[in-house]
Design goal:
- It is a single chain.
- This protein is mainly β.
- Among the domains are: 70-165, Spermadhesin, CUB domain (Jelly Rolls, Sandwich); 294-544, 6 Propeller (Neuraminidase), CATH 2.120.10; 583-630, ligand-binding face of the semaphorins, domain 2 (2-Layer Sandwich); 641-680 and 689-747, no CATH class; 784-897, GOLD domain (Jelly Rolls), CATH 2.60.120.
- The chain has five helices and 76 strands.
- The strands form 25 sheets. The chain has a five-stranded antiparallel beta sheet. A five-stranded mixed beta sheet has the order 5-6-11-8-9, with no helix packed on it.
- A hairpin with a 4-residue loop joins strand 24 and strand 25.
- The radius of gyration is 50 Å and the shape is flat.
- Residues 702-747 form the Laminin EGF-like domain.
Length: 1037
């Protein structure tokens, strides 16, 4: 290993650390051991404005440039390589990096082998466990940061790198030299790391060097013989001849006897593969198989296909070939004779699919779903007869089961059911998602049943069945790798379970791998997690699922039950397939992104392929497209080297370099290439570009675009050919064109309004309201203007030099105010103004050469307002917009006239007294009316009182000659049978016979009494004197 690890860090745009700070704007320092960066405030990262987007490890002074869309770092040593590798360790990749991706090449160009791709997709794994070290054996590493439509300011990543030390011993591919000694990789030993051995220490057993596995003593199990209770465990064996295989994903595997056969797959460095290999299980050894047919034909390179074993034969179907074509071929390999046979069906031709699954049920191979460019995600169940070799198909009602891509399917031998889990569902052209659903399919009955949703979506995972357990391993979710690496579905108990207390290998997170079962052990091979794997991961269930086992190996997640009726989908989308996806039929960038094409089309410049947004994860499941262009985000020419006209813009494209023409003026050509030389093609006029003229990391100091020579190293002296600018990169005023890289500038043909024009010769109209290619016409509505009296109007005069307005005076005896000022202050904006008055024929200048802001008044007694033709005209000129733009606010309003105070107060008091008099009259009338009403009420009351019967009676309170009291009044009812008697009662008093203060001594009481018919009225009391003044019949109430 190197003496120390340098750190390459990216924050906002880029900075790199290799013992010294390269971007001074970051204001960071290194700690003494050169492993940590201390920035302002003590943080680990400091956001800087921008730095050079491509540089080498030995660079010190990096010029500041605008923010690039891509950045590239080339790490290499200036000393002879001597097979010294570059060691890279991915420490951090921030979740805030959005769609940004980090491409790492083993070499000096984008055509070097691609060894890793990092993005947000793998951030979950990098947080849990450290990433594997990357080794660039060429001695150089090119790191490219690519992004698509990201508006992110806080993207940070950290890569530590070092160089392998010089070593007198050749350590090969299985070790690194440190202090003159080879530190061997796991599974290798000897002085130069050339002898295979076990990758772990066999604690309670011995190492079988031939198989490179531990032979455990009795009572022990596990990869290193350290497990005593026969529980579940993981192992990471290193196979013999493993280096013969590339790291792959989306390959296919099948088991025949003692061999695991593997075909095809996708490699980061080679793309689709056509390699056929088999793994000897007993000997732990790989071998490459050379198979062909009589015509020397074999399946083409592909990935996303299926492979099943039947009667010593392998049946290969479908897959994605080069340039994105999806195959419908059926190939059959005789594993004994190693001969391929292409099946040509004359009855039914199957639909080509990729990302499907194939399962053998008795004498049939059942192919479920998959992706087809014409149909989207197919809802077909395609069945291949393994005996008659005939295809047939049927459709699945998408209301029962949503078809998927990248799902898993596995056969349960005991029940004959096919269990399907997960996958990637496309619901329509703008709605798609990963699935977490689980079904099982009864092929004989043709029925589907759904299990309870586990809630962890994933696709491109694997599934196997060991005894009664379906084991789901790996996969990717919507935005990252799934956090639950392994899930177990107990088919007997119908429960989901997760393993506990199990040490998971640091490379367990992956997707695109394949898994098979041999002797109750799951073999998972390949997969992708930033880099492609070419090794096995093994998982042994042990006795965890055995009946009567007391081992606590799992924890239950849910208690799902089988639903006999399919669940109704909760998706908000209504269609399960994209509608009329035609993107794959377009073969050029211009055709892919043209105006009448589908907005969902994207162009991949890296692979020259047009794809739909909805199929992006299907078409490029491993993020293998580095340069993606979307309509409205740039031009096709922006991604092509030949269309770039400056060295700086050329360095923005990681696969391009600049070949200087040798004139010393900055002219040259942008070409595909790497650090050492261009990628020369046939007929290339720059095929003789010498190494001295080739620029990949830096640009020539003089960059005058062919229009000047430099003085003082990099300063263009006098720009010729009607050009201007620090690098003669634009045309001078009055000329147009693109002078970059030797381009020409032509004369602008404009009217007297302006002399300036754009790069296409269209005149830049400097008078607000002027239009036309030559500024010789007025914009509709600007030829006379509109009235805005009494209001304010803001005019954006940014970029204009003149602005005119006029107002016709109409009202008599009203003065007018004119105010002109900058809206919001507009610091730095300047202008002058002339104000004139007159009729249509003559004008009289009233104010000239005044500066803005400007205010004036026109008094009606000084001018003949109201007569025809009297106008106010304003001419604003010499406008300087300033840095923040220029907005003029113009206000024209009538001024209020002087008020006559005497007339005002006379009118006011006259009105006030009139109102007061009216109020007095109303008040008097009201009082008279109220008095009249009250008098009338009193007269009516007196008349009523006079008509009532009345009498007087004298009461002797102290006469005691009667034995019984008598009434003071008797009122006989009309029928003569009852009377109302009124008596006087004396109320109780004190012991002295006095009445208490505040109380009455007497009260009247009435009682209703009856009497005989002869008695019609009570006799008058004898002891009283009664004088009746009036007598009338009474009525009993």
């Amino acid at each position: 290993m190197g003496k120390r690890m340098n750190a390459l860090r990216y924050c906002f745009v880029i900075y790199i650390l290799s013992g010294s700070i390269l971007c001074e704007l970051s204001k960071c320092t290194l700690n003494p051991d050169h492993t940590e960066e201390i920035c302002n405030g003590g943080g680990s990262f400091y956001r800087i404005e921008s730095c050079r987007e491509r540089h080498g490890e030995s660079d010190v002074n990096i010029p500041v440039t605008p923010k690039p869309s891509r950045s590239a770092w080339l790490i290499e040593t200036d000393e002879p390589k001597n097979n010294r590798s570059v060691i890279l360790n991915i420490i951090k990749f921030s979740r805030l990096c959005g769609n940004m991706k980090l491409y790492i090449y083993d070499g000096t160009s984008v055509r070097s082998p691609l060894i890793a791709i990092y993005s947000n997709l793998i951030k979950a794994r990098t947080r849990e466990k450290p990433s594997p070290l990357l080794q660039a054996t060429s001695g150089s590493a090119l790191i490219v940061l690519s992004r698509r439509n990201d508006k992110i300011d806080d993207c940070c990543f950290v890569i530590k790198y070092s160089f392998e030390e010089k070593c007198p011993i050749e350590c090969g591919r299985h070790g690194l030299c440190s202090k003159g000694i080879c530190n061997c990789s796991a599974g290798w030993t000897s002085r130069n790391c050339s002898l295979p051995t076990c990758p772990v220490v066999c604690n309670n057993g011995s190492c079988d060097v031939k198989t490179r596995k531990c032979n455990c003593a009795s009572g022990y199990s596990g990869e290193s013989c350290n497990i005593t209770d026969n529980r579940n465990f993981w192992s990471s064996p290193v196979a013999n001849n493993q280096d013969a295989l590339d790291g792959v994903s989306s390959h296919a595997m099948a088991v025949v006897g003692n061999y695991i056969w593997v075909f095809g797959g996708f490699s980061l460095s080679k793309g689709p593969l056509d390699v056929l290999a088999r793994y000897n299980i007993r000997e732990n050894r790989w071998e490459i198989i050379q198979a062909s047919n009589e015509k020397h034909q074999r399946p083409s390179a592909r990935y996303g296909h299926s492979l099943v074993a039947y009667d010593n034969h392998l049946i290969l179907f479908g897959g994605t070939c080069k340039k994105g074509a999806v195959s419908n071929e059926t190939w059959i390999l005789n594993t004994t004779s190693r001969q391929w046979t292409l099946l040509r069906s004359s009855v039914y031709k199957p639909v080509g699919v990729s990302g499907h699954t194939a399962t053998v049920v008795e004498n049939e191979m059942i192919v479920l779903f998959g992706y087809n460019p014409e149909q989207g995600v197919s809802n077909l169940i395609q069945v291949f007869g393994l005996v008659d070799r005939v295809w047939r198909s049927s459709k699945v009602d998408s209301s029962i089961v949503r078809p998927t891509y990248g799902h898993s399917s596995v056969l349960h031998p005991g029940t004959g059911r096919i269990y399907v889990h997960g996958g990637y569902r496309m619901l329509n052209s703008s709605c798609y998602r990963a699935s977490s659903e689980t079904f099982y399919y009864e092929s004989k009955a043709g029925k589907w049943y759904q299990l309870r949703n586990i809630g962890i979506p994933r696709f491109l995972h694997s599934a196997v069945i060991i005894d009664s357990a379906m084991i789901i391993f790996g996969g990717r979710g919507e935005k990252e790798l799934v956090s639950r690496h392994l899930m177990v579905f107990d088919i007997n108990e119908m429960k989901w379970k997760f393993p506990i207390n199990t040490t998971v290998p640091k490379t367990a997170s992956r997707y695109g791998h394949s898994s098979v079962v041999v002797d109750s052990i799951m073999y998972a091979f390949g997969g992708f997690a930033g880099l492609m794997f070419n090794s096995f991961l093994q998982y042994s269930q042990g006795d965890c699922m055995s009946q009567g086992s007391s081992l606590n190996c799992f924890e239950a997640f849910l208690t799902p039950s089988v639903l006999l009726k399919p669940l109704v989908s909760s998706d908000s989308c209504t269609s399960h397939n994209p509608s009329s996806d035609q993107c794959h039929l377009r073969h050029t960038c211009a055709d892919c992104l043209r105006g009448d094409s589908d907005d969902s089309c994207l162009w991949c410049e890296t692979l020259n392929q047009c794809v739909s947004k909805v199929t992006l994860r299907v078409t490029f499941p491993y993020q293998q497209c580095m340069q993606i262009l979307e309509r409205g985000t740039g031009a096709c020419s922006d991604l092509q080297c030949a269309n770039v006209k400056t060295c700086r813009d050329c360095s923005m494209l990681p696969g391009c370099g600049w070949c200087d023409d040798g004139s010393g003026t900055g002219s040259g050509r942008c070409m595909p290439g790497g650090k050492n030389e261009p990628f020369l093609g046939s007929g290339d006029s720059y095929a003789d570009c010498s190494k001295s003229r080739w620029n990949f990391i830096n640009c020539p100091a003089c960059q005058c675009n062919g229009h000047s020579k430099c003085v003082e190293g990099n300063r263009c002296e006098n720009c010729e050919d009607n050009t201007a600018g620090a690098h003669c990169e634009r045309c001078a005023d009055g000329y147009y064109g693109d002078p970059r890289n030797g381009g020409k500038c032509a004369d602008c043909r404009c009217s007297s309004q302006t002399k300036l024009c754009d790069s296409e010769g269209k005149c830049r109209c400097l008078a607000l309201g002027a239009t036309g290619d030559r500024c010789d016409r007025c914009v509709p509505g600007y030829n006379r203007g509109d009235t805005f009296l009494g209001s304010k109007k803001d005019f954006n005069v940014t970029g204009f030099k003149t602005f005119n307005f006029e107002y016709t005076l109409k009202e008599e005896k009203r003065s007018v105010s004119v105010k002109i000022k900058w809206k919001g202050g507009n610091k730095g904006s300047k202008a002058r103004v002339n104000i004139t008055m007159g009729d249509n024929n003559e004008e009289e200048i009233k104010y000239g050469h005044e500066k803005v802001p400007f205010t004036t008044e026109f008094r009606y007694n000084e001018y003949e307002f109201g007569s025809d033709g009297i106008t106010i005209r304003g001419y604003i000129y010499d406008i300087e917009s300033g840095d923040e733009g220029a907005f003029l606010r113009i206000t024209i309003e009538n001024l209020a006239e002087t008020i006559d105070l005497l007339e005002f107060f006379l009118t006011f008091f006259g009105c006030f007294l009139s109102l007061l008099l009216m109020a007095g009259i109303v008040w008097k009338v009201r009082n008279r009316y109220i008095s009249y009403i009250l008098n009338r009420q009193r007269r009516e009351e007196r008349q009523k009182m006079a008509s009532r019967p009345f009498a007087k009676v004298s009461v002797f309170l102290h006469a005691h000659n009667k034995s019984t009291p008598g009434p003071v009044a008797v009122e006989t009812c009309e029928n003569g049978r009852a009377s109302v008697l009124t008596v006087v009662m004396r109320l109780p008093g004190t012991e002295d016979g006095l009445t208490p203060i505040g109380q009455s001594a007497l009260c009247f009481a009435s009682v209703l009494g009856t009497h005989t018919e002869q008695t019609t009225s009570a006799p008058a009391p004898k002891a009283t004197r009664i004088r009746t003044t009036k007598r009338c019949a009474s009525t009993c109430v």
